[in-house]
């Protein structure tokens, strides 16, 4: 369809009804304009990913779990609507507070932080966390999880989070209050894109000073992530914010094509929810269309939608829409298949004679 011609759906004179469902609300959004229209279309694109049985990656930047959004992620995992996750270490660290029953409260943003410091309260915008009862308690939990008994061999962050989910499931007070334990139950790999930039990594310092060496196999990690794309008939990403989680998921295409000299073409679908501007040159604001030039996405015209909005507003709408109208999918249980995927990609690389020739893009 030529977008430069005068055609398209009529703009309705919107009417709201007290009996409207989330499906009705999304339809209102999609029939309107601006970011409301983008949000409505993004919800429908997420549903399309599910209907086409795409392998769906959820990337999570920012501090989403301290405001309770881990429960939304948990519900999506249980329905089979999230197959693998890339997140910050902070989201995994703070999510575990809920599993262990450590206090997290609604607070205030317009405060004197000198007084909060004196009162031993840590603030994330308008969320309060106790310094000793929460942070120090969580630190002790993690130090015990990954202390002397943690295998002294190369590991990935997916293995790290899988073990964390296992221990929290077996020993925490409320294992049902953590998407990490749910990911363990459903074999959903959870990768931490920059583990050293989080309290999780800070807690490994104690054992390191006592002589324990931690060997993060980050190269295996990026190959595993690319192998998920390689083994998917259809593949999509739902991005909450930008940052390193966004790029980690999107660079799977360039690894396959630019580095391993294939012609897979990147992701079939990407939904991005961001408040970052594209004109500053940062990755968080980089448009999905720009990603096509890198081979991160199949098509710069179809299957990609950016919603310029606060993810704490847009994500629940997106999630509730698919939870309401999409049938539960059978879990793909990718975590147990990562070794098989890795070996398959390795074999394909070594049997591909084109790897030594000049690569030609599609």
Main attributes?
globular, 3-stranded antiparallel β-sheet, Deoxyhypusine Synthase, 362 residues, 9 strands, single chain
Write the layout of secondary structure elements.
Blueprint: H1 22-30, H2 34-51, E1 55-60, H3 70-78, E2 84-87, H4 89-99, E3 104-106, H5 113-118, E4 121-124, E5 127-130, H6 131-145, H7 157-171, H8 179-185, E6 190-192, H9 199-202, H10 205-209, H11 218-230, E7 235-240, H12 243-250, H13 252-259, E8 269-274, H14 288-294, E9 304-308, H15 311-325, H16 338-351
Parallel strand pairs: 1-2, 1-7, 2-6, 7-8, 8-9
Antiparallel strand pairs: 3-5, 4-5
Helix pairs in contact: 1-2, 2-15, 3-8, 7-8, 11-13, 11-16
Strand order of the largest sheet: 6-2-1-7-8-9
Helices, by number, come to 16
Q: Multimeric state of these chains?
A: single chain
How far do the termini sit from each other?
Answer: 23 Å
User: What is the approximate shape?
Assistant: globular
* H-E order: HHEHEHEHEEHHHEHHHEHHEHEHH
Q: Give the total of beta strands.
A: 9
Work out the radius of gyration.
Answer: 21 Å
- Give the name of the CATH architecture: 3-Layer(aba) Sandwich
- Content of β-strand: 5-15%
The low-confidence runs, each spanning 5 or more residues with pLDDT under 50, are none
Structural class: alpha/beta
- Work out the helicity level: 40-55%
Q: Quick one: CATH superfamily?
A: Deoxyhypusine synthase
